[in-house]
Prior knowledge:
Largest sheet of chain A: none
Number of helices of chain A: 10
Largest sheet of chain B: none
Number of strands of chain B: 0
Number of strands of chain A: 0
Oligomer: heterodimer
Strand content of chain A: under 5%
Number of domains of chain A: 1
CATH topology of chain B: MetI-like fold
CATH superfamily of chain A: MetI-like
Strand content of chain B: under 5%
Radius of gyration of chain B: 25 Å
Order of helices and strands of chain B: HHHHHHHHHHH
Helix content of chain B: over 70%
Order of helices and strands of chain A: HHHHHHHHHH
Amino acid sequence: MSDLVNFFGDNTSLLLNRTGAHLVIAAIGLVISLVIALPAGIWLGHLHKGSLLAINISNVLRALPSLALIAISLAFFGLSRANITIALVALAIPPILTNAYTAVDGVDPDAVEAARGMGMREREVLFGVELPLSWPLIFAGIRTASVYVIATAPLAALAGGGGLGDIIVNQPTYKLVGVIAATIVTVALAFVIDGLFGVIQRAVTPAGLVVSRELHTIVPPAESDLPADRVLA
Amino acid sequence: MNAVVFAQGGPVIPNFGRGDECIRNNGNFCLHWFLDNFGDRFWPRMVEHIELTAIALVIGFLISFAAALAAYRYARLELPFANVSALFYTIPSIALFQILVPITGIGWTTIELALVSYTLLILFRNTLTGLKEVPDEAKEAAEGMGLTRRQSLLRVELPLAVPAIIAGVRVATVTTISLATIAAFITPLGLGAPIFSAIQTGANTEFVAASLLSIALALIADVAIVFAQRMLTPWVRARSRAT
């Protein structure tokens, strides 16, 4: 135990440095996933079309083992940050895409109809009614994705390097105590980022919206929210 | 001249079998080599991988199922179990495998402990959600028919929760197949073994092939579970056709 405290004391700059790199790796993966999955999920949900597309893409991506993606990408790109980024994007897209689609698709049709009846344009319906009502579930997906990404980013150290994984996969140098220290930092990071998104989630959720407490925990039960017959064609 | 010496002394370089051009150039995927080596190098690892996954799923399911039933009955048990299993989820698997080694040694126990801990959250969550979402009318009808609590649970509530439970098993299965590849970081078991060793040696075909096999395994398992779900819950499709 005192070894652990000492490790934090003696290697503060190393840990900070690797934490910074870890956040960059995780952020790149998460941002790319958001750019791809968020508009796609929201738009398909708005049209109430392509549920099979959104859900099946998520199912296939979810099934891809991260290490396999890193290894295959390693063969093509060599040691590079592309390897881990591909794995993280495959990991982060499913929860973001599924939740965004499910959220917007599931907005109370009466609310949408009322908005149209008031003369709102398509854009206004989407941004003024559907999205605000969808934020809780959308953010639940983003929070899940961010936890996945931070917990998986240590694999970066296997192919291209960077982040807390450099310490975690290098037990010969840093000993078990280093592995444990870097793991504690990784777990803490996951909780901090999850909490941060939780704060944003609460801030953007309309005051009148009653949100199930389920959505505030780390992994949302999004899978079971879907009617079973819609999971695969 | 060289040719003569060569012919007299025999081959100096040991014969590694027929390395075709693809292997000599370390191509990304040499099909011949893969087919030649499938039986020796890949098949045993694949069987191990399936065993690792199946054991973890069975144990994880038993624990989560019991915990979900307990939490369904006594609501205050839900939060502690959900939080502990969520904590496991944030621990990088490559770290957890190493941290368990001093406690449980290098081998199956360590790998299964880690793999099981990652299945708990999803299986517990989905089982409990499935049970909670059983419509009140169904429970009231069961009560009205004179079913005891136990009978209602076994004959009405659990069957209605099956789709949600299987959805959880599905996610847990592909997740476990993925995490089981990382187990080879501590000991060469499963399809992760050729991936890690070949990343070290730089033998492209070997780690690409092992990676493709693990992907195939996950996709096949995923589809198999969907079919199992249809067989187990014929009423779901019948109902969706009716509407």
